[in-house]
Each structure stands twice: as structure tokens, then as C-alpha cells.
Amino acid sequence: MKLFIAEKPSLGKGIAQYLPGPHKTGTGCIECDGGKQIVTWAFGHVFEQVEPDYYTPDNVPLTPKGKKKWRWDDLPILPEKWVLAPKPDAKAQIKVIRDLLKKADSVVNAGDPDREGQLLVDEILDECQWAGPTQRIWLAALDEQSVKKALANMKDNRDYHNLKLSAQARSRADWMMGMNLTRAFTLTNKGSGVVSVGRVQTPTLRLIVDRDNTIDHFKPKDFFVPRIQTAKAGTSFWSAWQVREIDGLDGDNQLVNKAVAEKLAASAKASGKALVVDYSSKEQQQAAPLGFSLSELQKACSAKFGMSAQQVLNAAQALYEDHKCATYPRSDCRYLPEEQFGDASKVLSGLSRLGYGDLVTNADAKKKSGIWNTAKVSAHHAIIPTGSMTGQVSGDNKKVFDLIVKQYIAQFYPPYVYKATKIVLECTSEKWTASGQVPVSAGWKVVFGLQSAGKVSGSENDNSPAGGNSPAGGNSPAGGNSEDEPALSLPVLQKGETLTVTATDVQSKQTKPPARFTDGTLIDAMSNIHKYVEDPQAKAKLKETSGIGTEATRASIMETLLKRGFIERKSKTVVSTGAGRAVIKALPDVLTNPATTAQWEDVLGAIADGKVPAEKFEAAQRDFVTKLVGVAKQSNITIGDARPAGGGPAGCNSNPKKAAASKAAASRAGPKCGACGKGPTVVLQTKTGKDWLKCEACGAAFWPSKDGKSCGTQWAPLAATEKR
Predict the structure, then answer these.
(1) What are phi and psi of 563, to 5 degrees?
(2) Against a cut of 0.70, is the pTM above it?
(3) N or C: more exposed end of the chain, with fewer CB within 10 A?
(4) Which ranges in the chain are annotated with CATH 3.40.50.140?
């Protein structure tokens, strides 16, 4: 009997349906092929690291809850032999797997196609002491064609041993760092709060805190851009002064002296003439954006729909597992293997049947875009549609699926073609520049419904200091810029001709702080951590390889920070709380610096590639934790309880009694909702103590009527009520 062990029930059932019949559903498994092949499953990790109490002496005093007290005497806790324990809610399924293994002749590891999926099943086999032949099935998609192809191309599970070691090293490093350093910095804390420390969560929090501090302490600075207006053949255009070394510039090469700017403009007006010293105009092409990695998909959905990173991951996972209409979502790659190009016609035909017929009609299945590049594909390829679908997608799933489909179809459209023009004028020995773009052919942009707008820099609607522009649209996910801008052009000129200056002005501008993080931009920052590292050598190294966390874990890291009260969401933005800022201020730089954990991710990748022994990495982590426990002992910090209370993250100096009262107030039941008629509603209070109602079914908020028994007729959106 061949036993398949899948990562989760949905994956197991997806495999079983394409194995030979007859099929018979049993307890925690599905028998196929007359019992010759059986599919069973886990529920994610069914074994977990034991708690630190397991490794500490039996004579450690207990807390009122029966847990061993945290003490300096027991730190650091560094297990000599790592022990796993069954999760309480998985014991029944573990018994099912253990009993099936006793009957099996061979096993197939059917974990998700990533390092965690590899470890998840391998640790089951280790704990059950399985030593028989084992294969690995690598499922990039769960449609019929992909599953049958994967079944026919299974490999020896030993080929993935280094991938398991990498995941195991990551798990142990996270345990040592989280358990030891959280205890150490909590023990040294003079406040009441737990100082939660994590290998990935802490540097991620640092990114948010640093951005918030930059914004909060930002002081806007005025700068000025002199311009001249010229014309030819009835077409007038503005050209911006080309910055050069001159009195009045600041360190960022911005002209901050208004008098100097006005003098430049006045001199140009007095001259009245401008000489064309350079002119170029040529057609340029822009290829369709590459396919989606998970981080790029999260970034696009955050910008377009305001979805959180976790919502996007959940939707993409549902498209993969439940609807089988998209490939494996936890991918860090934007390319496709060239071997799959032959499947393009089938995928496009399937998408035509799924409602994308108009777009598929104009697609050329024979066109091979730059997305097809086997050399740039590692364990996974870009997230693409499979061309088939189980059931109907709706809501967030539909939004995410639509983006994935259009990104794929765009590969089979011509490039976007535009005419790029650049003009350099000379007036009063100063250079003045203008550049413009005019669409020639929309190409792939029509897939996204874009207007392929042109731009002219230096014109009245341009806000760039020096007037420069990049090609319209960009190579961004979902087709780039969707703003409907007028197509503006520049006149045809000849080098050496003279134009009349018809007007001059000085644009007054002001520097702006960076934007607050959103889920999408934070995911992008975690993926491209080199942008936030100042050391040139570290930046160069990290640019090639590193990020914080992985495609599979970044969303959960954000959710962890939210649950611990270190960050909160405000509209579409993600901001740090007072507690989060206090934690980052208190911890040493080596724990919060994003470069540290990014470099560790490099080593974990090297372990997966067989280039670094896992033991070497673990030994280094043991030394690191030991040193940081010593640092914690010498620290003196005061941080309050950061746990959420009363409906939102508490600050550093949160009052437990006040939080409890707030929580009690929030739990009071209100009358039936006057908006949707369903309810239930809860009674909340404003800062001044005035009651208001919120419906937990539809989200409407309103003031109660005078009798307090029924909803008032005047209700407003929640945001408006909160302002009152």
C-alpha cells in the first residue's frame, strides 16, 4: 500500500480525486485504487516544539496558573536534544497516520511545495519512526492536469532533505530567540508589560516605527522651480530650469532661495529668446508586467482594493486549494518555466470559458514574452491561472483572481508603444528642459482597461522638481498607473532653431514626508530590505538575495504584531502604537536592525541549497542568544502592557482597570440594528462618555433614540460617529 500524507485535508482530497478508483472515505483518510493507495492528511503542523518549562529544572517555583516562573537562573534555555510534542487537537489524526504507516509499503510526502511543507510531513515521519521508501510530490497547482503531471513525476524524498533542514533550523532559531529574549527583556523591564521579541517580528516593527518617527518629526521645506514657456506652430509648452551649481541650492540639489529663482525667471523673460540645443523624439516600447509573486500580489491588492496582506494570502490560498483555478500562492518568483509555454493555449481557452473571452480573443497564444525564463525559476513559479475552476469565486477571491488572470493574459498582448520626446533649451546661459510622452499603441494596457495617458514634464500639471519623467504606466503589477491623464505632446523642433519666450514663472513647492506604510508597501519593504539599510556593503549584498521573512510568513508576522498591540491599522495604513515604539527604543540595535534577520534568511537559503550545514547555523544562534541574554541583564527599560484592551491596542502606560471597564462597556448588548434589521449591536462610549451603538452585522453606527430601546432614525457611517 502507498500512503500519501498531505499537509491539510483539502490538499489530500485534491490528490485523491485524481487517483484511480474506487474511492472510499474512511476515518481521517480516503482509500483509492481498491486500498492500494491511501491518502491521509495533517492539519498543518501536528507536532510543535515543547514549551521552555520542559527543559527547566523541576524545582522552579510555579505561578498561580501552574506555569514555571521566569527566572534569570534558567536563562538561556538551549535544548541539548530538541523535543516535539503532539498538538492536543491533532492527537486523533496522528493516531490515524501512525496506524496507516504500520500497513504502508511506501510513503509520499504531499506537503505544500515549500520548506515548511517539507518539514511538516517529514517531522511526522520522524516522530512515527518511519524508515521505509519515501517519495515527494511537488504540487504547484491542484487542477487535474497539474496533479496528474505531478503524480507522474514524483522524486525521492531524500532529494529534499536540505529543504527540511532549512525549515528545522528556522524553527529552532525562532524558538531560541523568542523564548529566551522575550523572557530576558521582560525580566529586566521595570514596567508591567511582556517585552515580546521575535527574529522577524522585531525588525519588521522597527521598519514601521522608523517610518512613523520620520513622519512625526518631518519639517517641510520650501523650494522653487523657475520655468519658461515657449511655443511653435501653435503648440506652447513649459520647460523647467535644469539644476546646476548655483547659490541658493540645498544639499538635495533643490533651489530654496526664492529670490534667486525669481531672478532666473526674470532674466529669461528679459532675454525673450531660447535656443534649442537638444531635441530627441523616438518610439519606445514597454513590455507587459511580469507575473505575480505573492508579495507583488499583496502589494497590488493593497493599493487597488485596500486588502490586508493576510486577506490576499487567504484569497490566493482559496483559489489554489478550493477552486483550483490558480497555482500555488506562496511563491517568491515572477517568472514561468519555458517548458510550460506549450500549455498556454489550453490555459487561455479555459479562461475564455470562465468569462474572459473578449480579452482572450485578442491574445496571441504564440507570443512568448519575457516571463518565460526557466533560469529565473527556483522552487516555484509565478502565480498564474490554471484555466479551470471548481465552483464559483466571489468577493475578495474574485478580485484577486481577476488580477491574476489579467496579469497572465497581458503576456500574450503586444507591448505598449509610446513616443518619448525630450527638449533642452538654452536661455541666458541656463538650460531648461521639457519631456513628453504620447501613446502610439495601447498594447497590453487594454487588458487592464487603461487609457495609456501621455505626460509632459515642465507643464502646468507637472509636480516634479526638475521636470523628469519615467515611461508612463511603469512595469508595475496590474498594469501600472491607471489615472486618466490627457495625452500631451511637444512640438517637432530642430536643433539650433530659436523660440520666443512667451511667459515665465516660479513654481513654489514643498517637500513631503514619506507615506505611512500600508499592508502592501510594508510587504514590499520586507521583500526589498536593502532599501532600508545604510551601510553600502550590506546594502549591495542584501539587494541580491535578502528579505525579512518569506512569502509564506510575512502576512502572519504583521498579524502577530497587531495581536500584540505593537501596531494598529488606521484606514489603509499600518502605524506603530506607543508600546511598539517603546519596545524598539528599548531593544539593542542588533535585535531590531532589519539587516540582521535578512542575513539570517540568506543562511537559511544556503542550508536549503546544501551550502551551509544546519548545525553551524544553530551553533551561531546559540552564541547570539547567550550574548543577548547578557545584554538584557545590563539593560534598564520600562514598558507597559502592550496587549490589546477595550477594542484597540493599549499604549505604553495603559491602565488595567480602565481597560477592563472599557471592555465591559463594549460587551453591553444594544437594540436591534436600524440599518440592516439584523444586529446584534453593542454599546460603546465616546471619549466624553456618551453612548453610541455599532452593528456587528453590517458595521453601521448610530446614536440610540431618546427612549434607549430602539435605534434612532439618524445614523451615520462609523467613522463619522467616532469623530463625534
Answers:
(1) -65, -35
(2) yes
(3) C
(4) 2-163
Mark whether 356 is an active-site residue: no
Sign of CA dihedral 655, 661, 664, 666: negative
Please report the DSSP string for 171-202 in residue order. Answer: HHHHHHHHHHHHHHHHHTBSSSS-----TTHH
CATH level 3 topology of 175-216+515-633: Topoisomerase I; domain 2 (1.10.460)
Q: How far is CA 518 from the centre of its chain?
A: 9
For domain 303-326+333-412, the question of CATH label 1.10.290.10 is answered with yes
Instruction: Phi first, then psi: give them for residue 157, nearest 5 degrees.
Output: -60, -25
pLDDT value at residue 680: 61
Checking if the pLDDT of 170 tops 60, the result is: yes
Q: Among 469-478, 520-529, 565-574, whose mean pLDDT is lowest?
A: 469-478
pLDDT tens-place string over residues 678-715:
556 666 655 445 567 766 555 566 665 444 443 443 44
pLDDT band at 654 (very low <50, low <70, confident <90, very high): very low
Residue 715: strand pairing partners: 702
CA 274 – CA 424 distance, rounded (Å): 10
Please report, as a single letter, which amino acid is at residue 51: E
| Rounded Cα–Cα distance for residues 424 and 45 (Å) | 63
Condensed to tens digits (0 to 9), the pLDDT of residues 480-518 reads: 333 344 456 799 999 999 999 999 999 999 999 999 999
Specify the fold of 2-163: Rossmann fold (3.40.50)
Q: Is 50 helix (H, G, I), strand (E, B) or coil?
A: coil
Beta-carbon contacts of residue 282 (< 8 Å; ≥ 6 apart): 419, 420
Phi first, then psi: give them for residue 495, nearest 5 degrees. Answer: -60, 130
Residue reference for cell 487588458 = 447
Q: Rounded distance, CA 468 to CA 455, Å?
A: 10
Fold category of 222-287+415-510 in CATH: Topoisomerase I; domain 3 (2.70.20)
The CA R_g of the chain, rounded to the nearest whole Å, is 30
Q: Which is the catalytic residue, given 279, 320, 328, 532?
A: 328
